[in-house]
Write a structure and sequence with these properties.
By secondary structure, the protein is α/β, with parallel strands linked by helices. It folds into 3 domains: 3-198, 2-Layer Sandwich (Signal recognition particle alu RNA binding heterodimer, srp9/1), CATH 3.30.720; 220-462 and 501-565, Rossmann fold (3-Layer(aba) Sandwich); 463-499. Helix content is 29%, strand content 18%. It is built from 14 helices and 21 strands. The protein has helices spanning 70-81, 135-146, 241-259, 307-313, 321-333, 335-359, 361-365, 376-385, 408-414, 443-446, 464-476, 481-496, 537-543, 551-565, and strands at residues 3-6, 23-28, 39-43, 65-67, 86-89, 95-98, 103-106, 114-119, 121-124, 130-132, 162-165, 169-172, 179-182, 193-198, 220-225, 293-298, 369-374, 398-404, 425-432, 456-458, 526-529. The strands form 5 sheets. A 7-stranded parallel β-sheet has the order 16-15-17-18-19-21-20, sandwiched between helices. Strand 9 and strand 10 (130-132) form a beta hairpin. Helix 6 crosses helix 8 (376-385). The longest helix has 25 residues, at 335-359. The radius of gyration is 28 Å and the shape is elongated.
């Protein structure tokens, strides 16, 4: 009776096995959301493309998809119907969906691109779970469904165009809510059969959704400039600065949640439902009444593409932290490359600032910006704040400059530069770990009297170190027994330590120096992260990359931003 042309190349991928043919049951459920029958999904496993530096080409299709939130689906569908090219979604519009091209990518930085699908038909899996289907299959099924020609049998996979005659029968349920296609040719029940449903019935398990885009009054943004080792992200996913910033956002939320035990707080993060502004006063350290904050990575390394760099990389053997770090530092000491790196970092911050202001006009009325520079990124940030070049001047006022894990002190000492200036920043902080072989103090460059006392201690009890080394064991010790044994030994040492009382921010009255008063409200410049044990040089190098996932560091940065905003 009915027939269908199956176009060449249309394939429906069946996990774990492949059958020569299977049958669709077309089910029209009336219990669906009214705002739109279409849903929008994005891939979460295999990217379509990566930044140029990765030299990436997709070889396998994406198989794991997550649905955008209900509100974002509605935004996307409305934009699609209005023939818009793009629409921003998710937290603070951090993701941009290219509607016609069918992919999404980060809004504010160059990142991975993932496939986006606008779906109407979904496959019924076990336990009333739904999954997306191949767009080619969906197009054919929807066409036959809307034309009333439901008496069709579709064969996948196919190697060429093939006409398939229908040999089954059609029936309609008495409740008139389902239209089912039967086919006598189906064989091996439950293996060869695939059941599709139009829309998403409410009695089915709803697919996992992405965080929604909820407009909120972001009042402070933070630019994070990365340091050494970013080329290693080409080989190791753990060495990815965007992932570090995502962890930083989550840590901000965790710190805010702890503060919310005694007061309301509104801090950037996910979920956004419980973010409400507080109305209690701010004390010396425990901040309440926090305002929303958003952070952005400044990815300068991937934008630095020079012939000299490629030749230098060939001089090293296998990619490693030391080689990558040496290359980054050497390039920054060469005047021409140094200027190019500064231009990239400054341009990226100005670009993101302008783009965020365009999408958030309320923020643009009274923008507040802070900068975090890690490792070599701290040197770049400091040089930008003290540059006299108009080309490197930011388009915004910098409220706070945080240098973390910074070698700036040593570099200044080597170059015999015994002066530290704030430049364009209103407040300056140098956060370090005594176990970090890269970080160095700045106060002794200003006054030799500071050699008589150590850095001011960032409040904290040191117990978060246990969590850090557990993460270290999970992420890194899988590939080396030596690291596993060392990390395990350190874990035992940490667990056996008694909890210590949080130290005071200022260790002693005689640590006050007039020369340091200008840098921030504490009258200190160097701040150390509290650590309860000695760490070997090997683990200290690893610790150099573990600042923004440290609750004490995040709490300190967050509090300084919010207090100085007042």
């Amino acid at each position: 009776m009915g027939s269908v042309w199956v176009k060449s190349g249309v394939r429906y991928r069946v996990p774990c096995f492949s059958r020569p043919q299977f049958v669709f049951k077309l089910v029209n459920m009336i219990h669906i959301r009214n705002f739109s029958e279409h849903r929008w999904f994005r891939a979460v496993d295999v990217p379509l493309s990566k930044p140029k530096v990765y030299n990436y080409s997709q070889t396998t299709p994406a198989t794991q998809f997550e649905m955008f939130s209900a509100s974002d689906c509605e935004r996307l569908e409305k934009a699609f119907q209005n023939n818009k090219e793009t629409e921003v979604v998710e937290t603070d519009g951090l993701v941009t969906v290219h509607l016609k091209k069918g992919y999404c990518c980060p809004t504010y930085w160059d990142g991975f691109h993932y496939e986006v699908r606008r779906t109407l038909w979904h496959e019924i899996c076990q336990n009333k779970k739904l999954s997306v289907i191949d767009p080619g299959v969906e197009s054919i099924v929807e066409k036959k469904y809307t034309t009333g020609n439901r008496k069709v049998r579709l064969l996948w996979p196919v190697n060429k165009s093939k006409r398939v005659a229908y040999s089954g029968k059609f029936s309609q349920h008495n409740d008139t809510t389902r239209l089912i296609l039967h086919d006598s040719y189906a064989w091996i029940p439950y293996l060869s059969k695939r059941i599709l449903v139009r829309g998403i019935p409410l009695d089915f398990e709803q697919p996992k959704t992405r965080p929604p885009y909820i407009p909120r009054p972001v009042e402070h943004i933070v630019f994070c400039i990365h340091g050494i080792g970013q080329l290693l992200s080409l080989q190791y996913a753990q060495m990815n600065y965007v992932r570090d910033i995502n962890a930083f956002r989550r840590m901000i939320l965790q710190v805010a949640d702890k503060k919310a035990n005694s007061s309301s707080a509104a801090i950037e993060g996910e979920p956004l439902d419980d973010l409400n502004e507080g109305d209690k006063p701010i004390d010396n350290y425990n901040v309440t009444g926090a305002k929303p904050i958003q952070v952005f990575p400044i990815m300068w390394r991937g934008l630095l593409d020079t012939e000299e760099e490629l030749k230098a990389q060939q001089l090293f053997g296998a990619p490693n932290v030391a080689a990558d770090a040496v290359l980054d530092f050497i390039m920054y000491t060469e005047p021409r490359h140094k200027l190019r790196i500064q231009e990239i970092a400054a341009s990226e911050m100005n670009r993101v600032f302008k783009q965020f202001c365009d999408l958030n006009p309320d923020f643009a009325k009274n923008p507040k910006v802070s900068i975090i520079g890690h490792s070599l990124g701290s040197v770049i940030a400091y040089d930008l704040m003290n540059s006299g070049s108009k080309d490197l001047e930011p388009d915004f006022t910098v409220s706070n400059l945080f240098l973390i894990g910074s070698p700036l002190g040593v570099l200044k000492l080597v170059n015999k530069q015994f002066k530290v200036e704030m430049g364009r920043a209103k407040n300056l902080f140098n956060i370090m770990k005594l176990s970090d072989p890269v970080s160095s103090r700045l106060e002794p460059l200003i006054s030799k009297l500071s050699l008589g006392f150590g850095p001011a201690a960032v409040p904290g009890d040191g117990t978060n170190l246990l969590q850090q080394f557990k993460s270290l064991t999970d992420d890194l010790a899988k590939n080396t027994e030596i690291l596993a044994s060392k990390a395990s030994a350190v874990l035992q040492m940490i667990a056996s330590k008694e909890k210590v009382e949080p130290p005071l921010l200022l260790p002693a009255g005689d640590s006050h120096l007039p020369e340091l008063e200008k840098f921030n409200r504490h009258g200190r410049l160097d701040f150390r992260v509290n650590e309860t044990i000695d760490i070997s040089l090997f683990l200290g190098i690893v610790g150099h990359f573990m600042y923004l996932d440290n609750p004490d560091v995040v709490r300190f940065i967050l509090d300084e931003i919010l207090i100085n905003d007042k």
